[in-house]
Request: fold
Amino acid sequence: MTSRRAFLSSGGLALLAAGVGGVPSFLTRAASATPSGSFRRRKVLVTVFQRGAMDGLAAVQPLSDPMLARLRPTLALDARRQLVDLDGRFGLHPSLRPFGDYFREGTLGIVHGVGSPVATRSHFDAQDFMETGRPGDKRADSGWLNRATGLLGHEPSTPFQAVALTPALPLSLRGEAPALAIANLEDFGVMAPGAMAATGESLEALYAQTAGDLLSSAGREGLEAANVLDQARLDQYRPENGADYPRSELGESLRQIAQLIKADVGLQVAFAEAGGWDTHARQGAADGSFARRAADLAQSVAAFWTDLERYQDDVVVLTMTEFGRTVAENGTGGTDHGRASAMFVLGNAVRGGEVHGAPLVLDPDALEDGRDLPVTTDFRALFAGVAGPHLGIATGDGLFPGWAGRPLDVLRS
Amino acid sequence: MRRAPAPLPYAEAGLPDEAAAAHALNRLAFGPRPGEAAEVARRGVGAWIDEQLTPPASDPDSDPRLADLDQLGWTTEEITSRYLTPAFALRQAVAEGAVPDGFGPRDPEIRDRLQGWMERNDIRSVADLRRDLLRAKLTRAVHARAQLREVLTDFWYNHFNVDGRGGQILYVPTYERDAIRAHVFGRFRELLGATARHPAMLTYLDNWQSRAPSGTAVTFGRPPGRGGINENYGRELLELHTLGVDGGYSQDDVIATARAFTGWSVVPNRNEASTERVEAGLDRLASRGAPVVRDGLFVFRPNWHDAEPKTVLGRSLPGGRGIEDGEDVLDLLAAHEATARHVARKLAIRFVDDDPDEGLVGRLAAVFRRTDGDLTAVLRALVEDRAFWDAARSGPDGAPSKVKTPFEFVASAARATATPIEDVRGVLGPLRDMGEPPYHAEPPTGFPDHAAAWVNAGLLLTRMNLGLRLADGRVRGARPDLAVLTAGREPESIDAALQTYVGALLPGRDPTPTVTLLQPIVREPAFARRVAEAATQAEAETPVALDDDGVFGETPEPPFDPDDTAAFVVGVVLGSPAFQRQ
Reply:
């Protein structure tokens, strides 16, 4: 595949112009203003939002808490026969086994007891608070990943600086910095080649002339992006190192993020999501609905990490979920909405092999409202601790307005 | 006696009759069909709206097109017993000895034998049901005369969302028909009650298994040995269906609500042995005087119902009762002030503006409360409100205030180009890519109702592309009839074509900005040649030579071809910013 740098310097620009009848404005900017090769070593933050609130205790279970089996008669796993022992204190759900390998290698860190300081058990509110990074402020309408993009300190010379592999732009990426949502890269790049190539430039102009409107900026960015992707021939992508992506929503999204990273189009902030974590009933233990979701998460991330072997120094993967679930199982073999959950951070600079966060105590007296794992790590501390050092941005008031906490020390400096 | 409708204040909003008709068709219908805005203006906008608010039960324009879909009239029991997943069908066929054991449904020979067994027994595949349901939804959106009923069915289905993934799709036909469509012009309490009892909702939000925890007094018989409550339905009932996320309820209210709905369950219908066992158990309970309630597959199980006293939102529910607990909670919620505001705001968002004026929300909420949740009265108040008509020009540069959702875009493009959709497979992929595959919204919140969630680069590209392909007849199963747009008269020049199609596709709007925007495109020297190239696709990827200064060299202009031009100009208009607005 032609890298972006080679493409710009080898006359690819002229070919592109020929194909669509005009040079996209961002490309001319990039070609004239950017020293060649400067995209190449930029860091990429890849985020995975697990919608529906993952049961952190099912994912990362204490190995020897006497309350667990009492509170979860059908959901708790056997510490010796079923769990993947991490550090003598915690065991991993067997479906997350690939994460255990990364943990032992020292590239995967786990943070337990993460959540929002504002107690809400509404998915609606909790997802918004986590995505805006402004817990409690319901009027906030910009996402923390969008602000992180704005703090990168250089002009977005590519429409692919911040990309969500989702049909709709998630709140995390809404805001002043340009961001792109793409449901499916293949369709995007090769979309009706004849008609789009014939009209691309003209429709770009059309949307550009629509003043001050949501439709205007979205249309312009989309056409610029489509022009680049057409050249990158992303439809011929083959994963490396035998990486085997699950044919799931998340697997597809991560495969496409890997494509964008390798296509060298200047990606720095990426967003993927996986639904189905709202396990109110028949959650299952070693098998069942939770196990299937967990296996999809672990296999998708593992395929991505394998595929990206050459780029691992530049990439960190961070998972997020809006809250955790009740410590006790409910009457239907599931769990209801709770408070804190567990999150994963994968990368060569991660302080891996460690379960970060305060110790868990499952005694009902120690639980919030007598039922939920209390929040001992503010999610902003984790996000700041990852995004700050990795992307080289300041994580104070600009990233999380009104927050004066300390970033969690989860990456090696 | 019904009061005479107030005059509609669209003239005050500066809208001539045809612009008002077009606005009404854009908001209360899935967009105008060719010539329809003029026709509605001639007959009277008020008269058309009256018709839309009081439609007859059957629809003369869409029903005949769906006559072959007999399952649309079936009961939930009939659907669940005759539509099977391949795996389930195989099990049943093996049990009846029609297919040997030990093979999977993908084995070619087994598949043929299974197919034969299914046809002989009139057993159908779940995948067919999914496709037929989408066909019915699109057919009604495109063709139904009672358009507002279809718009409202879409709106309320999304409000009371049920995800039709997997086997859950079997409950969707009757959920949409009996719980939603049947009540969209009725009272909110009836709509709420119908969704609360439907197996689709009871299974989607897990309430069907929720029962009194052990040690709790139950309405009849002994408390169940194991089990307990599930909070999911109770929480979404408060947060999404009625009060709204800021409606002033607490976690204790969620738990008390969940307890009030213990025992609201569903008779399993996929396995005859377990159905018989459950029904025998219920008959036994009933014969001993237990207040069992059966209504289709809905069942109230008095031996699962938590009969302790409860308090919901400050209202005490005495102990020892049964199904009345849930019904009382529904009454309480339907009459609550927060519900009136929540429903009023959602309707204002759908019909007026993504960020509606609080004054409008308050006026609609007041009507909701005064009329005991009469949804027709609320809608009438909405169209009699200046805000509804101002929305035709309150967007940027005097454009309409709202952007179409992906489904609204597809339906309105089909209506605008007189395109019957015979096969839904061509539009299903684009709808999925735009984030709105019908009946497949996973979270209980349904699909987002704000443009910010679905207007972005990727989605606009999909829209433009779909518009171009639709107009060009390249979407499978969707043949447009562009001659209808010009009453059979072909425009004689490309400029004339642009004027004609902008006027026809965007009736009631000022055509000048759109014509001005599109003119450079259609006049571009290389344009017609490129369109011709695109259409033939013969040498698709051949780059065109550039002059040294990066400008296209002279190429002879091909003769004007009205057919290609019509499709292209229509496609460009469908992909233009103006057509994205409603």
Summary: Residues 406-580 of chain B form one domain. Residues 534-560 of chain B have pLDDT under 50 and may be disordered.
